[in-house]
Amino acid sequence: MVVKRTNPSLHLSRTPLIYVVTQVRFSAVMSIEKYVPEIQEKLRKKYPWFQHSKVQEVLLQSPGPPSVGFNDRFEFLGREKQTGIVLTRNSIALHTNKYSNFEHFQDEFGEALAAVHDSVGLGLVERLGLRYVDLVRLGQGESWSDYFQRELLGLDPSVVGVSQWNSQFGSIGKTDVGTLVFRFIQSESPLPPDLTPGALHYEKELLRPGEVGTILDFDHYSDANGEFELDSVMGSIGDLHDNLDRAFRSAVTKSALGKWE
Predict the structure, then answer these.
(1) Cα–Cα distances in Å, from 32 out to 35, 137, 227?
(2) Which residues pair with 184 in a beta bridge?
(3) Residue 120 falls within a domain, yes or no?
(4) Is residue 10 part of a domain?
(5) Cα(10)–Cα(245) distance, integer angstroms
(6) pLDDT at position 62
(7) 36-66: pLDDT as tens digits
(8) For residue 2, is it within any domain?
(9) Rg (Cα) of the chain, in Å, rounded?
(10) Half-sphere exposure for 168 (CA within 13 Å, toward CB)
(11) Quick check: is 8 in a domain?
């Protein structure tokens, strides 16, 4: 499948990218658990590890106040536990911390989505999303201005008279295919607070204790309301990618790209 690209693909051998996830939300299949053995049989050669857990969720109900419930989470993990398929009663996602390029990632998700659809017979598509999380760490003698465009860095701490100035803000806007959300977070936590990478294994520590890193969190999603059709869904996910790539390039400096090559 041809992917729209405004710019040539980036190949960064020292990439700051630490997490990528794409997700399709669909009309709930309350009996999803009974299909899991068949789905696992289709996926287990590529994803031999399996985990079953329950995640807490807030249920909105009208009339009446929200209530707290639990949703079964079935995770199929690759041999190195760096890539996994996450299935719930109303979503399927592919997430990884070992990303090569979008085309490969898209193909891998398409294979998993086809396996689930073949077993379950997915109904309506409700939302599609694609999200990239980068973590930038400072080296000796470096400053954040070496990596990020000035408008992301906030006030100059030397002018304000503070020894450490951590910025955090977000932006949201409409694109021609959906909604793009950008978050800039400087924190001692390596991942956004709402993100649960689950059982993914990281080969190296993301941040040392007490170290402050900068998270670039790019999330592009589109709401949908139509019958599930595999080629259409995969094409729509491909459409989400280009704006994310352009947003990343606009956030970082040319010097940073040079450091990551």
Answers:
(1) 5, 41, 18
(2) 169, 216
(3) yes
(4) no
(5) 9
(6) 55
(7) 999 999 999 999 999 999 877 665 555 666 6
(8) no
(9) 20
(10) 10
(11) no
Average pLDDT over residues 14-26: 97
- Cβ partners under 8 Å of residue 187, min gap 6: 166, 168, 212, 213, 215
**Global pTM value:** 0.93
Give 99-156 pLDDT, tens digit per residue: 999 999 999 999 999 999 999 999 999 999 999 999 999 999 999 999 999 989 887 7
Please give the Cα distance from 175 to 145 (Å, whole number).
28
Confidence (pLDDT) at 200: 93
Domain count, the chain: 1
Q: Encoding tokens for residue 220?
A: 């592009």
Is the previous residue joined to 63 through a cis bond, with omega within 30 degrees of 0?
yes
- Distance between CA 76 and CA 88 in Å, rounded? 12
Contact 241, 130 (CB under 8 A): yes
Q: Are 111 and 118 in contact (CB under 8 A)?
A: no
Query: Among all chains, which residue has been given the structure tokens 């041999």?
Result: 79
The pair of structure tokens assigned to 56 is 């807490």
For residues 246 and 261, give the distance between their C-alpha atoms in angstroms, rounded to a whole number: 17
Distance CA(103)–CA(232), nearest Å, equals 16
Range of the domain at 247: 17-260
